[in-house]
Amino acid sequence: MDDWPGYDLNLFTYPQHYYGDLEYVLIPHGIIVDRTERLAKDIMKDIGYCDIMILCVLKGGYKFCADLVEHLKNISRNSDRFVSMKVDFIRLKSYRNDQSMGEMQIIGGEDLSTLAGKLNVSVLFAKDVVGTGKTMRALLSSIEKYKPNMVKVASLLVKRTPRSDSFRPDYVGFEIPNLFVVGYALDYNEYFRDLNHICVINEHGKEKYRV
């Protein structure tokens, strides 16, 4: 909820070099892991026995993606049919120098056109945060023209923001207030990616790592 006070930092261990830079723990690492495992079960139930192409949206999504893939593989190993999984990584760029190009440019990953006509392959996007939804709509429009068997979106976080275009991922880890959060690969100017918990950064931390 918006008025959730969070967890006291003194209840957890976290890197000493971030002492004084955080307000509170919003989501502890253990809860993230358990929730990700449940998402994996829901995904496997929906996708069934199709092979899965997992597209990790960098940079913030890499930790969520890695943990999600590990849970998916464990489920596959313990089922009566092996599900092949392939992971690729993509980044988005909407600016060249300081000028907007007007549309999202997808960087990295193999040629997505190789998915065309593969009716046995489902595509799963793994993303860190969905805010306005514009990024995911751009990604989906770029891949749906190849008509893969199924396209799903898993996002660790969804922010309640007035700028949202109402896009909702198929799988959501946590819905959170419109706060700037760090940790679990989410960064502030490349800092805090090594923090396991998802935390709210304080004003001192923002000023300390401002560029």
Automatic annotation (TrEMBL):
One of its GO terms (biological process) is IMP salvage. Pathway: Purine metabolism; IMP biosynthesis via salvage pathway; IMP from hypoxanthine: step 1/1. InterPro entries: HGPRT, Hxn_phspho_trans, PRTase-like, PRTase_dom. It is found in: Cytoplasm. Keywords: Cytoplasm, Glycosyltransferase, Magnesium, Metal-binding, Nucleotide-binding, Purine salvage, Transferase. It catalyses: IMP + diphosphate = hypoxanthine + 5-phospho-alpha-D-ribose 1-diphosphate. GO terms for molecular function: hypoxanthine phosphoribosyltransferase activity; metal ion binding; nucleotide binding; protein homodimerization activity. Transmembrane segments: none annotated. It is an enzyme of class 2 (transferase). Belongs to the purine/pyrimidine phosphoribosyltransferase family. PANTHER family: HYPOXANTHINE-GUANINE PHOSPHORIBOSYLTRANSFERASE, PHOSPHORIBOSYLTRANSFERASE DOMAIN-CONTAINING PROTEIN 1. This is Hypoxanthine phosphoribosyltransferase. It comes from Neovison vison. The lineage of its organism: Eukaryota, Metazoa, Chordata, Craniata, Vertebrata.
